[in-house]
Design a protein that fits this description.
412 residues, alpha/beta, seven-stranded mixed sheet, four-stranded antiparallel sheet, 8 helices, 28% helix, elongated
Length: 412
């Protein structure tokens, strides 16, 4: 019995000794495992099934040197919406070369075609296709400058002109912005750009009939002082007989400014030839057609005749063609309302395509344009060309202060 108990104790001691040896050998391995930091796999040792999560300590933005491209690329559309800073002498700001083309698309029945996509349009400058970098659809708000000729030669009563202008602004989209300018012997800013219809109506109602006509000056300052500071879709709606009698600018200057701008011009012309004597004016030639105000012209005498009004019509037609707009004739009040209604409808259905010309020379050259759409049997209406910035200056004005808009004080 004692020998059996001794044998059991011996076996127990042997088992305890074995377990102790195993524990002593295992403890260092456990200790080493619990104190070791996790290691990222070496390059090439990643699992093929799952990519490792990036180490937050290594996340960073790319440097300017890494993002700089070695070739000229078209800017993103958002770059056009940033206000351009004044350019240093000798430095060309990319923003200044952006060309914007207002485009209307109609079907064979004359109905405007909405919902076209940017990829469906193609622009060709001097036969070379350009990359469209910005696209504004027909629902993008417009900035419209409403220019009213209130000189003494106006055929209609001032109240009739005001009523027609008010009916026009009421046909625009609620988001559109309108400024009102009236001109006679002075240039009057009746209200700046606003979306408040009541402010527009009050501005139109406060216009007054004046004396001579400074048409060219009105177009000049509206472009250079107002619309050139505005981005996006913009237009001039010009209500006049087209006869200028006292501007410092010339018709050549105003047409060139329109060619250089991204503004579409819609003249609404009424005829005053049989109603009011013509008090002076300035004529000239361009090609085989004479234009009032062009260099080398003879000044018509008081009570000028048919030729003076013919020149006026040609000038307004050239304004429309240079910008991609249309000339509307309005010899009666119903014609005026109809013209304004057609312009408002076109503004509601006009696209705006913008691109940076592949020809970056600022040489003042005239460049032809062609806009096409992929869909067949559609009619595309757009300006036929534009004038690049720069080149020789053609502005010719009389000596004196540059014309400016004078804010009209609102009625109390």
């Amino acid at each position: 019995m004692n020998s059996f108990r001794i044998a059991r104790l011996a076996v127990s001691f042997f088992l305890i000794a074995c377990i102790t040896v195993l524990i002593i050998q295992f403890i260092p391995e456990v200790s080493a495992q619990s104190g070791r930091k996790p290691q990222r796999p070496a390059p090439g040792a990643q699992s093929k099934d799952k990519k490792p999560e990036p180490d937050p300590s290594e996340l960073r933005l790319p440097s300017a040197a890494e993002t700089k491209s070695t070739t000229r690329t078209a800017p993103t559309p958002s770059s056009e919406t940033q206000a351009a800073l004044p350019a240093d002498e000798g430095v060309v700001k990319v923003d200044t070369t952006l060309v914007s083309i207002p485009v209307s698309v109609l079907d064979q029945s004359g109905r405007y075609v909405p919902f076209l996509k940017p990829k469906e349009f193609h622009i060709y400058e001097n036969g070379v296709e350009q990359e469209i970098v910005e696209f504004r659809a027909v629902n993008t708000p417009f900035h419209v400058a409403l220019l009213l000729d209130t000189s003494g030669s106006t055929r209609f009563r001032l109240e009739d002109i005001q009523n027609a202008a008010i009916r026009f602004i009421e046909q625009l989209q609620p988001e559109d912005r309108v400024m009102v300018v009236s001109f006679d012997s002075g240039l009057h800013l009746d209200c700046g750009f606003t979306g408040d219809r009541e402010v527009m109506r009050q501005a139109i109602r406060q216009t007054k009939t004046g004396g001579s006509t400074r048409l060219y000056d009105a177009v000049d300052v509206t472009l250079t002082e107002q619309l050139n500071q505005i981005e996006g879709r913009k237009a001039i709606v010009l209500f006049t007989d087209g006869v200028d009698t006292s501007s410092r600018d010339t018709s050549q200057t105003s047409i060139r400014l329109v060619e250089e701008s991204n503004v579409v011009v819609y003249p609404v012309k009424y005829d005053t030839e049989e109603r009011t004597p013509y008090y002076g004016g300035r004529g000239g030639t361009t090609g085989s057609i004479q234009i009032p105000g062009w260099p080398g012209a003879k000044t018509p005498t008081i009570g000028g005749g048919t030729e003076d009004y013919h020149y006026a019509g040609v000038y307004l037609q050239k304004l429309a063609e240079a910008s991609g707009g249309r000339l509307h004739n309005a010899d009666t009040l119903s014609d005026v309302d109809r013209a304004f209604a057609r312009i408002a409808e076109e503004l509601r259905h006009q696209y705006l395509l913008s691109y940076y010309p592949s020809n970056t020379a600022e040489d003042g050259s005239y460049r032809s344009l062609k806009v096409r759409v992929d869909q067949p049997d559609l009619i595309v209406r757009a300006r036929q060309g534009y004038r690049a910035k720069g080149g020789p200056q053609t502005s010719e004005t009389k000596k004196g202060k540059r014309p400016t808009l004078q804010p009209r004080k609102p009625k109390n």
